[in-house]
Design a protein that fits this description.
Number of strands: 5
CATH topology of one domain: Arc Repressor Mutant, subunit A
Largest sheet: 3 strands, antiparallel
Protein name: DNA-binding transcriptional regulator, MarR family
Structural class: mainly alpha
Keywords: DNA-binding, Transcription, Transcription regulation
GO molecular function: DNA binding; DNA-binding transcription factor activity
Number of helices: 8
GO biological process, one term: response to stress
Pfam family, one: MarR_2
């Protein structure tokens, strides 16, 4: 059975929209979805969605699902192998990372650079401050604002952690050749500067 350019139960499929090649796994179906893993569920989801909503763009769906699920797998790996064992969450590391590289910042600026809400940063900083990794000081021109900075212990902790974190980044990157890595970076940067990304930033 062929549905909108998808391979269903192993049958051949035509190219994707506008001439894009379609992955040989695109839309793979199964009678036992419980046997799928986190990443292979993408194939099943595309086929199932196309069967019920034929107008769905399978290539855009695959791109969105794959990026989202890969990002989730990366974060889970980094958090579980590097950051949780050190006593902080992925969010906590993001705050430490920004303060390490950007230096002392008002909380609102740290939140923007970390891609988090002010409320989330405020909650995380309470724990980081309790653990002696971050300090909070009032901002003279704004009584509601606070300035965040790493302590010496915080600087040591985040630099030690990032060395291990980068080892995990290298392990993931090793699946691609150097040329493929540069190509992927270029494509991802193109997405992050797209009109859709700009619109999302305005809403954030």
């Amino acid at each position: 059975m062929i549905v909108k350019g998808l391979t269903i139960r192993g049958q051949a499929s035509p190219p994707g929209r506008r001439g894009e090649p379609v992955s040989p796994n695109l839309g793979r179906m199964t009678d036992r979805p419980a046997d799928l893993d986190y990443l292979s569920f993408v194939d099943y989801a595309i086929g199932k969605t196309q069967a019920e909503l034929p107008a769905t763009d399978p290539v855009a769906m695959r791109l969105g699902l794959t990026l989202h699920r890969l990002a989730g797998a990366l974060v889970y790996d980094w958090e579980s192998t590097v950051h949780r064992p050190r006593g902080w969450s992925w969010g906590g590391f993001r705050v430490l990372f920004v303060l390490w590289l950007a230096g002392p910042l008002e909380s609102r600026h740290a939140a923007r650079l970390a891609g988090m809400s002010r409320a989330a940063v405020s909650a995380l900083v309470k724990t980081l401050e309790r653990d002696g990794l971050v300090t909070r000081t009032p901002v003279p021109h704004d009584r509601r604002a606070v300035r965040l900075a790493l302590t010496e212990a915080g600087h040591t902790a985040v630099t030690d952690a990032y060395q291990e974190h980068n080892t995990r980044e290298q392990a993931w990157a090793a699946a691609l050749t150097p040329a493929e890595q540069n190509t992927l970076i270029g494509l991802l940067e193109k997405l992050t500067t797209s009109p859709a990304a700009a619109a999302a930033q305005r809403l954030a």
